[in-house]
Amino acid sequence: MRTDTRLSRMLHVLIHMDRHQQSVTSDTLAQMLGTNPVVVRRTMALLKEQGYVTSEKGHRGGWALSKPLSEMTLLDIHQALGSSSIFSIGLSTDHPQCLVEQAVNAALTEAFDEAQALLLKRLGSITLAQLADDFDQRFHGVTGD
């Protein structure tokens, strides 16, 4: 089963955009991500709808941040991308009358709900600025600056 990497990839993109402090084209982002510019435009449009990025058309156009990283959390970006399911584990509903299936599904649903609430709370507590600071520390550790 393929995993949904949109959150990770968009966090990556947004931090790069902040560090380069200039607009970037869908073609450039597509090249960086190894995907199609149409996929980039579609995904970035979701972030634009929520006010995290802007876009300009034309020769000097491209995508730019519309908020500082300190005003964006991982949860914000997750939700802007459509809040895909956190877990790929699903419940069996082949035999809804089966009491064993009901017991299993009740236990799994409770566990999934608790785990998802904890994860979403954690995502809401981390800003993109914190990720960018972590990058800066790693970069300076590697370069010795």
Automatic annotation (TrEMBL):
It holds the Pfam family Rrf2. The lineage of its organism: Bacteria, Pseudomonadati, Pseudomonadota, Gammaproteobacteria, Pseudomonadales. Coiled coil: none annotated. It comes from the Bacteria. This is Rrf2 family transcriptional regulator. PANTHER family: HTH-TYPE TRANSCRIPTIONAL REGULATOR YWGB-RELATED, WINGED HELIX-TURN-HELIX TRANSCRIPTIONAL REGULATOR, RRF2 FAMILY. InterPro entries: Tscrpt_reg_Rrf2, WH-like_DNA-bd_sf, WH_DNA-bd_sf.
